[in-house]
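pasting input
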Amino acid sequence: QVQLVESGGGLVKPGGSLRLSCAASGFTFSDYYMNWIRQVPGKGLEWIVYISSSGGTIYYADSVKGRFTISRDNARNSLYLQMIGLRAEDTAVYYCAREKTIAARPLIDYWGQGTLVTVSS
Amino acid sequence: DIQMTQSLSSLSASVGDRVTITCRASQSISTYLNWYQQKPGKAPKLLIYGASNLQSGAPSRFSGSGSGTDFTLTISSLQPEDFATYYCQQSYSSPITFGQGTRLEIK
């Protein structure tokens, strides 16, 4: 079965950095686009970035552009999110999510359990 | 960006009730509308995609309808495990965007 397991969250000071990882299993990782989506505790969902199956196409939300970098290692079935210049408003649970294509449009069909990032002094 | 609006942030209902949750898009999104269920402390789970297609494994008491800008998620007979927060999400154009969620509570 599809499994996505995030790690790397924690407490970091404003301006600090953190690298999140997502280990994928149960499917052919290299066939799928992947996304990071975040959720402020008790609030709604915000998509922040996707990466194509090969890694050749990447698209960021304006809120993280220039500070966050997504990457993937298809040989290791892993997705990453490097975050620098962290701000209090980046505090959230970060989900790794698989995307498939239905009728030429993206569909997020599986999510990991999330990892909490807290930005606070 | 396309704005998704769920008119009710919370809704109270009883086991066995028929419940409808609504979602509106700021512009036409055809039927590129998906519904997710999220329980406390858990990841969202896909219920309905393409406005009306039931995701494999989702109970048949869930159904979706709508096109253009107005959509509904219906639960035909509420079960105890259905008390959760429901999010709509558009996949018509990038960036994908979510509604703010409707929390379904026990009356």
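fyi The first strand of chain A starts at residue 3 and ends at 7.
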